[in-house]
Amino acid sequence: MNRHAFSAGTVCVVGALLFGGCASQPDHFYELATLPGASVKEINSASRSVHLSLTVPSLVDRSEIVLNDAGNGVLIYDHERWAAPLADQVTATLSRDLEARRDDLVFGDSRFVRSGTPPLHVNVDIVQVTARRSEAGRRGEVSIVAHWHIAGAGKDAATDQLGGASFTAPLDGDGFAAVAQGYSQVLSQLADALAAAIPGADAPRSALR
Prior knowledge:
The chain has helices at 2-23, 86-101, 176-197; strands at residues 28-30, 48-55, 64-68, 74-82, 105-107, 120-132, 141-151, 161-170. The chain is an alpha/beta fold. The chain has 3 helices and 8 strands, in the order αββββαββββα. It has a single domain, classed as ABC-type transport auxiliary lipoprotein component (Rossmann fold). The chain is 29% helix and 30% strand. The longest helix has 22 residues, at 2-23. Helix 2 (86-101) crosses helix 3 (176-197). The strands form 2 sheets. Strands 5-2-6-7-8 form a 5-stranded mixed β-sheet, covered by helices on one side. A 3-stranded mixed β-sheet has the order 1-4-3, covered by helices on one side.
């Protein structure tokens, strides 16, 4: 009886110590940034509405930051977290990046559709994400592979546009803030590509090919 009581007490103490150890490690949160840091341009009255739909791989679409190791494994950091769901952050950041580059486009939902002007639909699938921190003399980097489909530019499917590319940004530092910055940089590169690919409201058909 005494042995059982002592054991239970020991379990409680050990559990408290373990809980206290976990609680002592703070969580750090990170967000993505619009690059290059310019403010979003003023939307003009002729701006065309764009609906942006975006997906990211489920492996990295989680609250914890996920990094690749030297092999085929991944490292999940419980206390290094995104401030909001990654897919939401990527969508919002890419939208702001694009509006900073194209003042003739406004990104939003059906509330932003101008009467008589059909919206453009930009679907982006980020099919691969690789993120590695600097280690053993090797500079870290973030890279993505993205495919996109721009629809609604004309009256028939022949005017739809498909595209895709890979984008890579080196990390300036070995901390997790540098990882977030690397994500922001590759999204900025993706925005450059999409800004060039999305036609203007009165773009000729040849511009869509």
